[in-house]
Design goal:
20-stranded mixed β-sheet, disordered C terminus, about 400 residues, 6-stranded mixed β-sheet, globular, mainly beta, single chain, about 45% strand
């Protein structure tokens, strides 16, 4: 029985064009390959953000003990973005076709950080409309919060829940009580869903709250330029997998440039990128004067009350005023190591567009070793039989050498 293991490292920048966002790996799920798995590994003491575009597919995230950390199985969900907290161990991502779907498609991407859109209005209520956000506080006496969400039926919306370094569980249901998405185990401190219009209810529950925890809940309009919509036309060609896109005019500039923090908290760093050290923190409603940007225009340098300066990501702030003439500081953009994603499937159909493929190898005649993955029930009882030869996996250099030898053949 043939197996294919593909190791992917996907590079991503916050300021991207639509074509750049398509520079990933498109995987088709059909009768030949109805499901694939991906192993997610994070460097020690770092977070990792994974984005998955879905078209007719479901998503299940497992921890190292094969317990479900996140589950999404609803055709109304088109993109899932989740942020894994530091030192939570290895995770595996299982993607398969929804029931009664002949062909599905997925795109998996490793991001440098959890992306947030800025809502136009911050409210203090138990209901959110499109372009609104609310900041909530969880503690031992009030550990949960329920929020009603309303998206016009002819639109799409992006709902995001972000609670930095806080252990929470989350659930999104529709107006009939049907579960749309659930996160468990408290391994995620950020979750974003691109969903169809409708009425929903979101519940956040804090776990083992020793002190107060702040969280930002945001419902923003769908931005097709930043997040193209993946869909599968009813044709036989992979080339017909399309992305819906509409370009919008940039907003007009306003006097004086300031950065208004709209998330519950944001890191202030010594340079542009998550690879620089954290100097301090900004909090919701903090306003900072903006002194410049990096060449990629995704990080800004701000002035602090004590007279010092720091860098922060633009994704956590509203930029107001005349920011068109900001100074550009040619400081290297440095990111912390990204999560490594290893896609494992039974001869999956993969369209590679601008992806750095570290290694690719087909494994033959592992018969009984891989037969158990053909049955979901057997997968749950997975043991280490498939890794009987530990030496093949312990040395990455040997693994890469094997690839070279196969290429020579």
């Amino acid at each position: 029985m043939n197996r294919m293991i593909v190791t992917l490292i996907v590079l991503f920048s916050l300021v991207v064009s639509v074509n750049a966002q398509l520079a990933e790996t498109l995987i088709i799920l059909d009768d030949t390959t109805p499901a694939i798995d991906a192993v997610i590994s994070l460097p020690s003491d770092t977070t990792g953000t994974i984005s998955v575009d879905l078209a007719g597919a479901s998503l299940t995230l497992y921890d190292a003990e094969v317990q479900i950390a996140l589950e999404v199985a609803d055709e109304r969900v088109h993109n899932v973005q989740f942020n894994i907290m530091p030192n939570m161990g290895e995770h595996s991502l299982h993607l398969e076709r929804l029931d009664n779907v002949d062909k599905a498609a997925v795109v998996i991407e490793s991001l440098s950080e959890f992306l947030l859109q800025s809502p136009a209005q911050t409210v203090n209520d138990n209901s959110l409309g499109v372009d609104q956000g609310v900041n909530v506080v969880l503690n031992s006496t009030s550990p949960n919060r329920m929020i009603d969400l309303s998206i016009p039926t002819d639109q799409l919306g992006v709902f995001a829940a972000y609670s930095p370094n806080a252990t929470t569980m989350n659930q999104l249901t529709d107006s009939t009580g049907t579960v749309v998405a659930t996160s468990m185990l408290g391994h995620l401190d950020g979750l974003s869903l691109l969903i169809d219009g409708g009425d929903y209810q979101y519940t956040m529950l804090g776990v083992n709250l020793a002190e107060e925890t702040a969280a930002s809940l945001l419902l923003t309009p769908y931005d097709s330029e930043q997040m193209p919509l993946l869909y599968i036309p009813q044709t036989e060609s992979i080339d017909d997998v399309a992305v819906v896109n509409s370009l919008e005019e940039p907003p007009t500039n306003m006097p004086s440039c300031q950065a208004d923090v709209f998330v519950s908290s944001v890191n202030l760093r010594s340079g542009p990128g998550t690879g620089y050290s954290v100097m301090n923190y900004g909090f919701q409603n903090d306003v900072f004067p903006v002194g410049g940007t990096n060449p990629q225009n995704n990080w800004i340098v701000i002035g602090l009350p004590d007279g010092n300066s720091a860098w922060m990501t633009r994704s956590a702030v509203n930029m107001t005023g005349d920011c068109s003439t900001l100074s550009v500081f040619d400081i290297p953009y440095r990111e912390a190591p990204e999560a490594e994603v290893v896609v494992i499937g039974s001869d999956p159909i993969i369209e590679q567009v601008g992806v750095v493929v570290v290694s690719q190898e087909s494994y033959l005649d592992y018969d009984d070793e891989y037969e158990k993955y053909e049955d979901d029930d057997d997968y749950e009882d997975d043991d280490d039989e498939e890794y009987e030869d530990d030496d093949d996996y312990e040395d990455d250099d040997d693994y890469e050498d094997d690839d070279d030898e196969d290429d020579d053949d």
